């Protein structure tokens, strides 16, 4: 069976504030603002036909426009503060287009913090979404730490224990498989997003991503590593 390949609107959510690194979305990585790498990727992808940035920052909007993205509005502060969920920003932009009667049936969200993503992995996400008629597709990697084995917490006596105490596993190989949620890509049905209070409540499946391209920039160490890998193309 030959799948009809959809064209996707790409949303890039990039607020001005950052709790861990100041101005993270426009911090220079390998000579360019971080957001540049995601805009460039999206513009070059053959199955993406519109690249739209949602931001509350005039500076980010100017930079995004300079590199070819569309910025249709400045996102209201109530969807951009430290307590705002990513889902609320998704709902905001979808309602913006719904009110104009041009809401896409589905969309892809490409966070700025995963500049090492590969086109083939995005295609795998798109193919999975289209072939199984899912509510959403996320990107994942097998966890190095397991809540059943070596991911620990303090109990009510302040002693260490595993997160799951119902059954103890003594060998890592015996643990149920667990996954880390990545920021490489999200593909979702727009109507599902507008109705849900959690992106994992519907028919959602994951695409496994290779560790070499799974970097999620959150710390200065991540920035330095991403800059090196982008410069040396070590992730290709």
Question: Would you give an account of this structure?
Answer:
The radius of gyration is 19 Å and the shape is globular. It has helices at residues 34-44, 58-66, 86-99, 119-132, 190-195, 220-232, and strands spanning 8-13, 28-29, 32-33, 48-54, 106-109, 136-142, 152-154, 160-162, 179-189, 204-208. The protein is α/β, with parallel strands linked by helices. A hairpin with a 2-residue loop joins strand 2 and strand 3. The strands form 3 sheets. The chain has a 6-stranded mixed beta sheet with strand order 4-1-5-9-6-10, with helices on both faces. A two-stranded antiparallel sheet has the order 2-3. The two termini are 30 Å apart. Helix content is 28%, strand content 21%.
Strand order of the largest sheet: 4-1-5-9-6-10
Name the poorly predicted regions.
Answer: none
Largest sheet entry? 6 strands, mixed
Portion of residues in beta strands equals: 15-25%
Apparent shape:
globular
User: How far apart, in Å, are the first and last alpha carbons?
Assistant: 30 Å
The structure class reads: alpha/beta
Helix content: 25-40%
* Total beta-strand segments: 10
- Assembly level: single chain
| Total of DSSP H or I helical runs spanning 4+ residues | 6
- Rg result: 19 Å
Gist of the model:
Helix content is about 30%, strand content about 20%.
List the helices and strands and how they pair.
Blueprint: E1 8-13, E2 28-29, E3 32-33, H1 34-44, E4 48-54, H2 58-66, H3 86-99, E5 106-109, H4 119-132, E6 136-142, E7 152-154, E8 160-162, E9 179-189, H5 190-195, E10 204-208, H6 220-232
List key phrases describing it:
single chain, globular, 236 residues, 21% strand, six-stranded mixed beta sheet, two-stranded antiparallel ribbon, 6 helices, alpha/beta, 28% helix
């Amino acid at each position: 069976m030959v799948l009809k390949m959809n064209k996707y609107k790409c949303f890039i959510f990039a607020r001005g504030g950052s709790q861990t690194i100041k101005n993270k979305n426009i911090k220079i990585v390998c000579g360019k603002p971080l957001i540049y790498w995601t805009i460039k990727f999206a513009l070059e992808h053959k199955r993406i036909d519109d690249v739209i940035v949602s931001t509350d920052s005039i500076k980010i909007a100017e930079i995004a426009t300079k590199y070819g993205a569309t910025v249709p509005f400045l996102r209201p502060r109530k969807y951009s503060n430290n307590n705002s969920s990513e889902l609320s920003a998704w709902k905001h932009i979808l309602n913006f287009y719904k009110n104009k009667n041009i809401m896409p049936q589905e969309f892809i969200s490409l966070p700025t913090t995963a500049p090492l993503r590969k086109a083939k992995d995005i295609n795998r996400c798109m193919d999975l979404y289209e072939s199984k008629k899912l509510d959403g597709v996320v990107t994942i990697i097998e966890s190095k730490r397991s809540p059943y084995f070596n991911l620990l917490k303090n109990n009510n006596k302040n002693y260490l224990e595993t997160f799951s105490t119902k059954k103890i596993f003594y060998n890592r190989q015996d643990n149920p498989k667990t996954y880390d949620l990545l920021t490489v890509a999200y593909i979702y049905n727009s109507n599902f997003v507008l109705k849900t209070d959690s992106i994992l409540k519907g028919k959602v499946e994951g695409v496994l991503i290779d560790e070499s391209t799974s970097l999620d920039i959150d710390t200065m160490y991540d920035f330095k590593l991403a800059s090196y890998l982008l410069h040396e193309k070590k992730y290709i």
